[in-house]
Amino acid sequence: MSLYNSHETDWIEYTTYNSSTYTKNLVDNGNGTFNLIVMGWDYGVASPIHNHPNSHCILKVLAGTLVEFKYSLPNRMSQQSMGSNVIPMNLIEKATYNRDQVTYIHDEIGVHKVFNPSKTERAVSLHLY
Known about the structure:
Elements: H1 8-11, E1 23-28, E2 36-41, E3 56-63, E4 65-72, H2 76-82, E5 90-98, E6 102-106, E7 111-115, E8 123-128
Antiparallel strand pairs: 1-2, 2-8, 3-6, 3-8, 4-5, 4-7
């Protein structure tokens, strides 16, 4: 099986940037069975911590570098015992991904935040849901 290496000519037409947030650009909706999305990450842009309900997420870096923070969610017993107090997120993994590297997340693993740490290089990623 051959491995796909990112080539800008394959995805540049789907890439846009915004200085305050990442951009999402639908490439294919897979006839309702999947979504293939290219995301543009301007300098220093991060997603909020988020989940992927009822889906799996495979992320491949097409350009630049992205840092992923994975968190476990507090269980309901912890929430009940703490009452109305805020329960901190538990960081379970921090990983840096460079061009052509891949990561995976699903709600059973936890939730995550993705961040472009560069002040000089934009990043681009491909997401399959």
